Description:
The chain has 2 domains: about 5-90 and about 175-315, P-loop containing nucleotide triphosphate hydrolases (Rossmann fold), CATH 3.40.50; about 105-165. The protein has helices spanning about 50-55, 80-85, 100, 110-120, 125-140, 145, 155-170, 185-205, 215-220, 240-245, 250-255; strands at about 5-15, 20-35, 35-40, 65-70, 75, 90-95, 175-180, 205-210, 225-230, 230-240, 305, 315. The chain is about 30% helix and about 25% strand. With about 325 residues, the protein is α/β, with parallel strands linked by helices. The two termini are about 30 Å apart. The strands form 2 sheets. An 8-stranded mixed β-sheet has the order 6-7-8-3-9-10-12-11, sandwiched between helices. The chain has a 4-stranded antiparallel β-sheet with strand order 2-1-4-5, covered by helices on one side. Strand 1 and strand 2 form a beta hairpin. Helix 5 crosses helix 7 (about 155-170).
Amino acid sequence: MSSSLLTIEGLQVRFETADGEVSAVNGMDLDIGQGERIAVVGESGSGKSQAFLACLGLLARNGSAHGQVRWQDLNLLELSQQKLNTIRGRHIGMVFQDPMTALTPHLKVGRQLNEVLEIHRGQTGTLARQRCLEVLDQVRMPDPDKRLDQYPHELSGGMRQRVMIAMALLCEPKVLIADEPTTALDVTIQAEILALFKDLVEQQSMALVLITHDLGVVAGLCERAAVMYAGRVVEAGSVADLFTAPAHPYTAGLIGSTPKLKQAYGEPMPTIPGQPPNLSNLPVGCAFRPRCRYGIERCAERPKFKPLADGQGAACHRAGEWGGGA
């Protein structure tokens, strides 16, 4: 693997709520290398988005983060907001989940893009507009000059997503984090956005972290994946290994629940039984234990992450032992 850009070790994210403390992320470890395309996969509520919001100091006010998130020789979790602002956008870019709410509705697109360049590069006026046009063209925005003078509501969903990607790319970051970037788009636009990400990574040697629940997106774009469940990485490895020989029952369940073209008409869709756990009251031992058909007595103990062959690993007492399947 190429040299590490961003290293996450023992990340814990907690939220104080009226019903008590919620453990959104429980000891996440992840290493992101230069030019790497890595997916972070899991159901809603698995902690994947909160983990990266925590890395960038963007948690809600009732949230707190502990552990190590190392960028160069800095632990991002220990930095002031002022210092973080020099890293966010400039070295680490993020494409947020909903472009309609992430963009400011009463400001024109050009004003919002210019602001990024003014803050991080001190560029204004003609120079800033020229750079905005370059990046909008790079993300294949039709009529980029016209779009700069429009408001977000005047753009289609795909165009708004391109604006968000352009905003994240303006300062040529080394790491781009994309949170469910194709969720609200139709399949044609999804394919275009994914192809765009692939081209950008190859052209700029930029690392891409794709946060998603869609395994189809993972298979078409990423080389490596980390599967999260109940705030913890339960399996990690190459995408090929995860699809052909999943080492954790949850990964196998996700793959088995993916719709298939060859599925017979009327055949029930395979599902993972039960519901994700309550993060304020996690099960004792393995968090997946209540939903797992391969459980044994030892699963009452929290499994450690076990390295397997070829860089694959899983937090399962039976990793490498059971036969896979949904």
